[in-house]
């Protein structure tokens, strides 16, 4: 789990740096980020 969190932080940083000038390139990193966030979100239950 810590590795997944670090990967999400790294992807978020890359996206923030790229989105201003190269949105198309940032989208390449946004897609895996959404998959990782969905994976982490599914690990928690509402109970």
TrEMBL record:
<keyword id="KW-0812">Transmembrane</keyword>
<keyword id="KW-1133">Transmembrane helix</keyword>
<dbReference type="InterPro" id="IPR049453">
    <property type="entry name" value="Memb_transporter_dom"/>
</dbReference>
<protein>
    <recommendedName>
        <fullName>Integral membrane bound transporter domain-containing protein</fullName>
    </recommendedName>
</protein>
<keyword id="KW-0472">Membrane</keyword>
<feature type="domain" description="Integral membrane bound transporter">
    <location>
        <begin position="4"/>
        <end position="40"/>
    </location>
</feature>
<dbReference type="Pfam" id="PF13515">
    <property type="entry name" value="FUSC_2"/>
</dbReference>
């Amino acid at each position: 789990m810590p590795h997944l969190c670090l990967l999400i932080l790294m992807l978020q940083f890359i996206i923030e740096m790229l989105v201003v000038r190269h949105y198309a390139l940032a989208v390449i990193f946004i897609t895996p980020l959404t998959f990782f966030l969905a994976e982490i979100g599914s690990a928690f239950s509402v109970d």
